[in-house]
């Protein structure tokens, strides 16, 4: 839902109230933190039953209080009202009305007659809203100057937030500190610098993170700033039960403390661990004693190693470990862990299945083969089927002769018939068989004489060519 300021105009473009998370109607933005949906708003009360006359009013950063309506004003969710303050009046937004307020008060253990339930004076006028907005605009500058004063005084404290009262006469300074701080001089300096009444309020690290907000490591808004209302104690035992590494950088949240989400699944882990043996249990086998290393709770797998051979881990199922423990109770030694490990059969899980024709997710992990190997495979096919499919023509065959012209002027290529004898397939490198008629062997040294004669003839030709060139040059 959104207010009229945030709704779209006729052209479909959102208007935008530009309140930067502090929506005046309380129905959008981060100002609607911990909002409760009033599912009883459309239901009528029984006859003779008066509506509950206490309203829930929200202030900055989700701070909420309950206020009674002695004047019987007609109020609804989203109305800006002026309420009773510690001195003067404050301005807030009605966040809940009706019977759900009674439920919320019961949850927080607050009664309608309590002194904490103050009064609603009136609906805020335009003047009240203007003063309220002016005071809210001063908060950032007040916080900056307040930090300068703290650093000048040398106080070991951190000023996290400043909240002005609706009438602008009082400001509450929220701070965190590890030790007790004497801020009497700080209050005097702040009061003289801003001409306001000062209230110092110490908060914890978790409350500071809840007020300021932020994005967690999970990518969502912080639980404490959106829906978490109570802060349960978190210790390192929750991480140990879940088999998490005790790394403070990963287990700590933005507040510097352990993450609240460590408690979310803790009960599930505790229920699953009831069937597991204790980690200090020693398994006695024929090969020696084995001690616990680690476990996978939901797969029900445990890893053990021998005391003497700690470099080798053996994976066992929960049933196998319980079987070994029963044998040890009867003073019997179990078989070596190697034999138990061979009995485990793991089901192959398909991480990716090509259903609609996508490429494999690991296609870039396989190295590509070189082009040379592909060419060699094409030239020398290993399979007989591929060799039969390839043509038997030689590689370096080129078309010889120009295409002949026909009477119509069209060119037709002449096909040359290859009359050469094919080489034997079994041994392609073998020599040609000698003809049967020329069986007589040549005398030794005859081939050398023929080579020498060819060299002499070539040298004589070169000399004759050089003499002819010299004669022609002289005549010129």
UniProtKB/TrEMBL annotation:
Gene Ontology CC terms, in alphabetical order: cytoplasm
Residue ranges with Basic and acidic residues bias: 404-421, 464-476
Domain named PSP1 C-terminal: residues: 118-203
Originating species: Tenacibaculum gallaicum
PROSITE patterns named in the record: PSP1_C
Stored InterPro entries: PSP1-like (IPR047767), PSP1_C (IPR007557)
Region (Disordered): 363-476
Designated name of the protein: Cell fate regulator YaaT (PSP1 superfamily)
Compositionally biased region (Basic residues): 369-382, 422-432, 445-463
Cited Pfam families: PSP1
Leader sequence segment: none
């Amino acid at each position: 839902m959104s207010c009229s300021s945030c709704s779209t105009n006729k052209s479909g473009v959102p208007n935008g109230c530009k309140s930067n998370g502090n929506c005046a109607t309380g129905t959008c933005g981060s100002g609607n933190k911990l909002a409760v949906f009033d599912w009883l708003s459309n239901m009528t009360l029984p006859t003779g039953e008066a509506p509950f006359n206490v309203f829930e009013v929200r202030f900055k950063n989700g701070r909420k209080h309950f206020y009674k309506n002695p004047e019987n004003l007609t109020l609804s969710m989203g109305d800006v009202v002026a309420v009773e303050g510690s001195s003067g009046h404050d301005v807030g937004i009605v966040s809940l009305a009706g019977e759900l307020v009674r439920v919320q008060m019961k949850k927080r253990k607050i009664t309608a007659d309590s002194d904490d339930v103050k009064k609603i004076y009136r609906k805020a006028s335009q003047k009240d809203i203007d003063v309220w907005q002016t005071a809210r605009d001063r908060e950032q500058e007040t916080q900056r100057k307040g930090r300068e004063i703290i650093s000048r005084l040398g106080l070991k404290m951190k000023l996290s937030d400043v909240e002005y009262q609706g009438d602008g006469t009082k400001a509450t300074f929220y701070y965190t500190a590890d030790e007790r701080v004497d801020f009497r001089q700080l209050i005097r300096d702040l009061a003289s610098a801003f001409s306001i009444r000062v209230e110092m309020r110490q908060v914890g690290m978790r409350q500071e993170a809840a007020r300021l907000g932020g994005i967690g490591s999970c990518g969502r808004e912080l639980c404490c700033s959106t829906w978490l209302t109570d802060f349960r104690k978190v210790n390192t035992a929750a991480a140990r039960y879940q088999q998490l590494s005790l790394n403070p950088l990963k287990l700590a949240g933005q507040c510097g403390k352990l993450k609240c989400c460590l408690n979310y699944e803790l009960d599930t882990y505790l229920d699953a661990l009831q069937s597991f043996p204790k980690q200090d249990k020693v398994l006695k086998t024929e090969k020696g004693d084995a001690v616990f290393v680690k476990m996978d709770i939901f797969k029900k797998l445990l890893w053990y190693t021998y005391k003497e051979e700690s470099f080798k881990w053996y994976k066992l199922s929960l049933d196998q470990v319980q079987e070994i423990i029963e044998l040890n109770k009867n003073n019997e030694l179990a078989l070596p862990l190697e034999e138990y490990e061979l009995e485990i059969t793991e089901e192959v899980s398909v991480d990716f299945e090509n259903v609609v024709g996508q490429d494999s997710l690991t296609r870039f992990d396989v190295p590509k083969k070189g082009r040379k190997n592909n060419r060699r495979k094409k030239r020398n096919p290993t399979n007989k089927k591929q060799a039969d499919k390839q043509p038997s023509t030689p590689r370096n065959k080129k078309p010889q002769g120009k295409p002949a012209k026909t009477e119509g002027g069209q060119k037709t290529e002449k096909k040359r018939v290859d009359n050469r004898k094919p080489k034997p397939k079994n041994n392609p490198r073998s020599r040609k068989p000698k003809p049967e008629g020329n069986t007589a062997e040549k005398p030794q040294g005859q081939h050398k004489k023929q080579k020498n004669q060819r060299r002499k003839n070539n040298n004589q030709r070169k000399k004759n060519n050089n003499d002819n060139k010299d004669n022609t040059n002289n005549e010129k």
